């Protein structure tokens, strides 16, 4: 069992799922989830699924591995993941005033 051969099969599987290879470093799979249905009986298939999961994570996607139902074959599928919006941050220049604000040099400090 060669890792290079498993990588070739994993890339082929992702291509069949509609995920074409991209330039290195692209985060084009954000909001997508790869669902791997694996029963674990074939170690080579598990290795291919592991390599595919690694590729999808590098491209910004999520990965979920589940056990198949009775009689269901092992397979992989792509679904849209629920995307959570990051909390909006205040711009750093417009902070609300606090009790220890910077005072001008001409104003005396209260005692």
Topology:
Blueprint: H1 3-16, E1 32-37, H2 43-58, E2 62-66, E3 75-80
Parallel strand pairs: 1-2
Antiparallel strand pairs: 1-3
Describe it for me?
By secondary structure, the chain is of the alpha+beta class. It is built from 2 helices and 3 strands. A 3-stranded mixed sheet has the order 2-1-3, covered by helices on one side. Helix 2 links the parallel strand 1 and strand 2 (62-66). Helix 1 (3-16) crosses helix 2 (43-58).
Radius of gyration: 25 Å
Pattern of helices and strands: HEHEE
Global shape: elongated
The largest sheet, given as strand count, sense and whether it forms a barrel, is:
3 strands, mixed
Strands, count:
3
Structural class: alpha+beta
Mean pLDDT over all positions: 80
Low-confidence stretches: none
Number of helices: 2
Strand order of the largest sheet: 2-1-3
In terms of DSSP E residues, the strand content is 15-25%
- End-to-end separation in angstroms reads 78 Å
Percent helix, as a range, is 25-40%
Considering the chains and any ligands shown, give keywords for the structure.
alpha+beta, 27% helix, 111 residues
Short description:
This protein has 111 residues and is an alpha+beta fold.
């Amino acid at each position: 069992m060669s890792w290079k051969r498993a990588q070739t099969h994993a890339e082929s599987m992702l291509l069949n799922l509609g995920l074409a290879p991209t330039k290195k470093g692209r985060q084009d799979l954000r909001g997508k989830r790869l669902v791997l249905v694996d029963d674990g009986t074939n170690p080579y298939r598990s290795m291919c699924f592991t390599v595919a999961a690694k590729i999808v994570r590098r491209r910004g996607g999520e990965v979920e591995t589940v056990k198949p139902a009775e009689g269901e074959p092992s397979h992989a599928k792509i679904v849209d993941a629920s995307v959570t919006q990051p909390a909006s941050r205040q711009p750093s220049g417009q902070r609300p005033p606090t009790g220890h604000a910077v005072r001008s040099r001409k104003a005396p400090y209260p005692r």
